[in-house]
């Protein structure tokens, strides 16, 4: 009989597959990706409570900045110069250091020739809305003569003529101011908001005569008061450099 070809037993698995293989594709999920939804992170304790105070502080700072910027221009349209610390004035020929923050009104700087040959130069500093509608006002004047040196008598005459019209009696006497001893008067003047306390003083300073007037509203104004602030000007007086 004719020979038969050898019989081949069919394999349980197709040749292209093995028992360890799988028909489901393998997908690798990155570690940074979560397969389960999570709740949003809780805000840090105190953060939600702080933001109203932060917002309030920003509003206050903005209001202060706008208020100060408004004071840089007085009602007459003149630009004002902030003064904090030493105020060097070429116009007056001297420098001084007033207490606290002031505004200088350059358009109020005056130079006047007097009949007897003396020359008066003056400057005005203020706090408030303007040099006229002030909360505090600092007036400084200097008298010089091209042909003579000032004497104590010149100081009494020229300084006394600078005294403003008082709204009542004056209380006058000698007051120490650093290395100087000035003649000063406590009084009250009529200001833009009513009667205000005032301190005026004058002294011979080398060849010159110096005069200072400080008037301030008694309520709502920062500072040590008219008398001490005026004496601070005298105690810090120096030649202009």
Features:
3-stranded antiparallel beta sheet, globular, 9-stranded antiparallel beta sheet, 3 helices, 241 residues, alpha+beta
Tell me about this structure:
This protein is an alpha+beta fold. It contains three helices and twelve strands. The protein has helices at residues 47-70, 152-162, 226-235; strands at 81-84, 87-89, 94-96, 101-104, 110-113, 119-128, 134-144, 171-177, 180-191, 194-205, 208-216, 238-239. The strands form two sheets. Strands 1, 4, 5, 6, 7, 8, 9, 10 and 11 form a nine-stranded antiparallel sheet that branches. The chain has a three-stranded antiparallel sheet with strand order 2-3-12.
In short:
The longest helix is centred in the first third of the chain and has 24 residues. The chain is 19% helix and 34% strand. With 241 residues, it is of the alpha+beta class.
Strand fraction:
25-35%
Distance between the termini: 139 Å
User: Which structural class do you get from the secondary structure elements?
Assistant: alpha+beta
How many extended strands? 12
Which regions are unreliable across 5 or more consecutive residues at pLDDT < 50? Answer: 11-23, 63-71, 73-77
Percent range of helical residues: 10-25%
Layout of helices and strands:
Blueprint: H1 47-70, E1 81-84, E2 87-89, E3 94-96, E4 101-104, E5 110-113, E6 119-128, E7 134-144, H2 152-162, E8 171-177, E9 180-191, E10 194-205, E11 208-216, H3 226-235, E12 238-239
Antiparallel strand pairs: 1-4, 2-3, 3-12, 4-6, 5-6, 6-7, 7-11, 8-9, 9-10, 10-11
């Amino acid at each position: 009989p004719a020979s038969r070809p050898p019989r081949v037993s069919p394999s349980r698995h197709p040749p292209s597959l093995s028992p360890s293989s799988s028909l489901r594709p393998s997908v690798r999920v990155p570690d940074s990706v979560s397969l389960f939804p999570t709740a949003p992170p809780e805000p840090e304790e105190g953060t939600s409570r702080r933001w109203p105070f932060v917002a309030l502080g920003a509003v206050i700072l903005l209001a202060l900045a706008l208020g100060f910027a408004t004071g840089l221009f007085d009602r007459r349209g003149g630009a004002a110069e902030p003064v904090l610390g030493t105020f060097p004035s070429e116009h007056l020929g001297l420098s001084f250091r007033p207490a606290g923050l002031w505004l200088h009104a350059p358009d109020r700087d005056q130079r006047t020739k007097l009949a007897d040959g003396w020359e008066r130069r003056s400057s005005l500093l203020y706090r408030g809305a303007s040099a006229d509608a002030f909360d505090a006002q600092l007036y400084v004047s200097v008298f010089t003569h091209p042909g003579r040196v000032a004497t104590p008598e010149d100081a009494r005459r020229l300084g006394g003529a600078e005294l403003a019209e008082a709204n009542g009696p004056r209380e006058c006497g000698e007051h120490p101011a650093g290395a100087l001893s000035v003649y000063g008067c406590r009084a009250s003047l009529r200001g833009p908001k009513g009667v205000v306390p005032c301190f005026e003083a004058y002294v011979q300073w080398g060849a010159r005569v110096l005069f200072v007037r400080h008037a301030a509203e008694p309520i709502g104004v920062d500072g040590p008061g008219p008398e001490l602030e005026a004496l601070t000007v005298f105690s810090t007086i120096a030649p202009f450099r």
